[in-house]
Structures are given as structure tokens and as C-alpha cells.
Specification:
single chain; 451 residues; alpha/beta; Rossmann fold; 32% helix; acetylesterase activity
Length: 451
């Protein structure tokens, strides 16, 4: 009887893997140094290269529910683990906005060859390169090989105004606007033309990354992508978040509170755009008393969360309809692994049909909350982030085993001081002064971490 119970318990905690009925086939090196290739379906590729997804994730007993897992992301002390430091480069976009590009390891720490693989990371709603969930991936990925890591380069793309990046344009960022990650990847590809790029996105950043990969299609400069806790159907997820008292009162309001604090930090700059609707919208957003996320988005994000067109939108719901990423899954043409949790209190709808696209695989754990996945570690009260292992396995396979299909990338060139892609005259970027050194365990005072 005990053996049966153990078997059933183990099966309960096994991640569920979902694939489209018609698989995509990948060319894969038999070993990193081998010239011999195997032709594997995406499912066979994951089974061979991501074995941890075939093993159970059992949450720490004191963090059993999704609420506890998510809460620990906010209140947990991660300052002594996964220490990562960065060199920051600021990019000025064609519309006058600023993006922060944080690269690790810093050049002062060690020098890597130009063909070293690069993991390009997009953070969550109000996060940045300092977030513990970002560092939990970059620490093992960027640690030198002789110390047990992969020895890769990591680059975090910090959205406008996040993680200390200045706000220099009335245009903000949003869950659907991909122009900033697009120009950031142009910058990375031009600086390191021989490097393999793999993208990783968290929460809102996962939504942006999914849309970017889909929009690029066969011309995507990433070899593979991984998205964690992606909100997918932003319309229905918003409705479920707002229509449940606990989720509305705790999570929706906490995210809106973070956004208000972020905007308040940049109040002087944003209110200075007197000839733009951003100025009034910022005043209105900061005047809201304990708003929910949809109330904040209805007041500010729907108006200034991206270029015009498509912004401004009539309502937040119209913005959510445009920003959703589940509808673009059929357009993806690189291997994409999405990992979610059934008990995520913020993301409650998961497109397990993979959009009918053989390039997309979804792994769904029974537990884990929103960006949690904490399991018991060694020592009383210690935890590990289970998610690090499968993500690192996926990254390594994408950089060392996968042989991407031949793709033609449009040429990059400088025009009027801005880096642009041939055929795209509306967006571009250039380096500007103001970067520096960023210590990855120093948080953003006042902001709730992990959201």
C-alpha cells in the first residue's frame, strides 16, 4: 500500500508536457563536439536534453500552495545567493526612450570570446536584472565552466524606467510592445555577430518575448526561446484576476502598487512632457487610491504603452486583446519551451494545445506559484529554485546541441547615428552615456520584488 501511495504521489508531482499533434523536427548534434547529427522531434529533443522535466517537482512543505510560493518570491531573502554583477549600457531609441542593457560577467571580472553563447533575458512587470528569478538562471549559466557553470554571457534587457533606467520619452513599455527588445537584439547581434543567442522571458517579459519570436518568424535572430509564467491570454487572465476577491485584493493591487511606485520615481521626467497625453495620464494614475492592475492600465498603459499606432487604445481590455500572446503561437519558427504552474495565482489560463504549432512545447507543474518553484534545500528553512535546472538544460542544448535551420537575417546598418535593420526605418537605437556597474543583489527600494 505504501509503495502504491509513493508511486501515486510521485506521479502527481511530475510535470505534464504538452506538444502539438504535428511535430517540428530539429537537427541536433549527437554530442557538443560531434559532427554527427540526429533528427529529433521537439518532444524527443526535450526528453533527451531536458531530463529534469521528466522528474517530479515537489514544493517545500511550508510553501505548498501557489500563494505561499508567490509570496516567498516577494518576502524571501535572496541577497546571499546567486550573486551576479553587470556592466550596463544605455541604448537611446529612435523615439527618445532609453533601454538598459546589463551584461554579465563584467569585463573587469573576466574576458569571454566573441563567439561565447549569450542568454538574452526579459524580466517581469516592474523587475529588472536584480530580480532573484533572473539571477537564479544567470548565476549557473554565466559561472565559469571550471566552477561548474556553462561559462556563457548573459544580457538582461531592462524595460524603460525599470531597474534604475532613466525615463526619457513619454512612451512607456507594455506586455505587447516588441520594438525595444527588437532593437536591443539588433545591438547585441551587431556587437557579437558570431555568438549564438537564446532568449528567456519571465511573466510580462515572457509575453513580450513570445510575441517577438512570433513576429520575427523565420527571421528570428534567436536560436531558441524559453518563457516562464507567461500570461498568454491577457484578456481572460485579467478577468479572472479581477473577478476573484483574493486575487484582485492581493495580486492585482500589488502589481498596480508597484507600477505606481515606478511611475512616481520618474514623475518629474514624465510630467515634463507637457505637450503629450502622458503628462495628464501620469497625474491621473498616481491619483488612484489602491487601484487594481486593470484600473492602472486603463488610466495609463493603454495610452502610452507603445508607439502610435496601435496606441492609444480605447480601453484596457482593447489593449489586452492586442497584447495577448497565445494567438501568435502558430507563427513561431524556433524551438520554444514554456513552463507554467497550475497553481499560479496570477496566470490561470495556459494554452496547452501549443497553438497547434510543433515548434512549441509546454511544461506544466502541479505546484510552483508565480515564478516560484521553490523546493526544500539543504538545511532547515533553506530552499532551491527547481526551475533553474530545466531552464539551464534547455539553454545548454540550444547553444551546444541544436543546429538551427539556415535563416536569412536582414542587414544591420547605421543611419543618422542609429542602428537600424534594412527595411525598418521607424525604429533604431544607439549607445549613450550613463551606464556603469550594477550589483545584482541590490534591490529597488519600495518595490515588491518578484512581480
Amino acid at each position: 500500500m505504501g509503495s502504491l501511495f509513493s508511486f501515486l504521489t510521485a506521479a502527481y508531482y511530475l510535470p505534464r508536457l504538452y506538444f502539438a499533434e504535428s511535430p517540428a523536427y530539429l537537427h541536433v548534434k549527437v554530442s557538443p563536439d560531434s559532427k554527427d547529427l540526429a533528427r529529433l522531434s521537439l518532444q524527443e529533443y526535450i526528453v533527451a536534453k531536458c531530463p529534469s522535466l521528466l522528474k517530479q517537482f515537489r514544493p517545500a512543505w511550508w510553501l505548498y500552495s501557489g500563494h505561499f510560493q508567490t509570496g516567498y518570491c516577494v518576502i524571501g531573502d535572496f541577497s546571499q545567493i546567486d550573486k551576479v554583477e553587470y556592466d550596463r549600457t544605455l541604448l537611446r531609441t529612435l523615439d527618445g526612450g532609453t533601454i538598459g542593457i546589463d551584461m554579465t560577467p563584467p569585463e573587469s571580472e573576466r574576458t569571454l570570446s566573441d563567439d561565447t553563447p549569450i542568454v538574452v533575458v526579459l524580466h517581469g512587470l516592474t523587475g529588472g536584472s536584480r530580480e532573484s528569478y533572473v539571477r537564479a538562471i544567470l548565476a549557473p549559466v554565466c559561472t565559469p565552466v571550471e566552477q561548474g557553470g556553462l561559462g556563457y554571457r548573459g544580457i538582461v534587457v531592462n524595460f524603460r524606467g525599470c531597474a534604475g533606467v532613466p525615463m526619457t520619452s513619454p512612451q512607456l513599455y507594455s506586455a505587447g510592445n516588441t520594438d525595444d527588445i527588437r532593437v536591443a537584439i539588433w545591438h547585441i547581434a551587431r556587437r557579437y555577430p558570431r555568438a549564438r543567442l537564446v532568449g528567456v522571458g519571465f511573466s510580462l517579459g515572457a509575453n513580450v518575448l513570445t510575441r517577438y519570436i512570433a513576429e520575427e518568424g523565420m527571421h528570428c535572430r534567436l536560436a531558441a526561446g524559453c518563457v516562464l509564467a507567461c500570461p498568454w491570454d491577457t484578456v481572460m487572465n485579467s478577468e479572472r484576476l479581477e473577478n476573484h476577491w483574493l486575487h484582485r485584493s492581493v495580486y492585482s493591487k500589488a502589481m498596480a502598487q508597484n507600477l505606481q511606485k515606478l511611475i512616481r520615481r520618474h514623475f518629474t521626467a514624465l510630467s515634463g512632457f507637457t505637450d503629450h497625453l502622458t503628462s495628464q495620464a501620469v497625474h491621473d494614475a498616481l491619483a488612484l487610491k489602491s487601484p487594481t492592475l486593470v484600473q492602472f492600465d486603463d488610466t495609463l498603459t493603454r495610452l502610452t504603452g507603445g508607439p502610435s499606432p496601435p496606441f492609444p487604445f480605447p480601453t484596457a481590455r482593447d489593449y489586452y486583446t492586442w497584447a495577448r500572446s497565445d494567438t501568435v503561437l502558430p507563427d513561431i519558427r524556433i524551438p520554444l519551451l514554456a513552463i507554467s504552474s497550475e497553481d499560479d495565482p496570477i496566470v490561470q489560463l495556459i494554452p496547452v494545445d501549443a497553438g497547434g504549432n510543433g515548434w512549441v512545447a509546454l511544461a506544466v507543474t502541479k505546484k510552483g506559484g508565480h515564478l516560484g518553484w521553490f523546493e526544500a534545500g539543504r538545511g532547515f528553512g533553506k530552499v532551491n529554485r527547481w526551475i533553474s535546472t530545466p531552464v539551464v538544460e534547455w539553454i545548454r542544448a540550444g547553444c551546444e546541441n541544436l543546429v538551427p535551420e539556415q535563416r536569412e537575417f536582414k542587414a544591420l546598418h547605421m543611419h543618422d547615428g542609429f542602428l537600424k535593420e534594412v527595411g525598418r526605418h521607424d525604429i533604431g537605437c544607439k549607445e549613450v552615456a550613463g551606464g556603469g556597474h550594477v550589483v545584482g543583489v541590490e534591490g529597488e527600494d519600495g518595490l515588491l520584488a518578484g512581480l
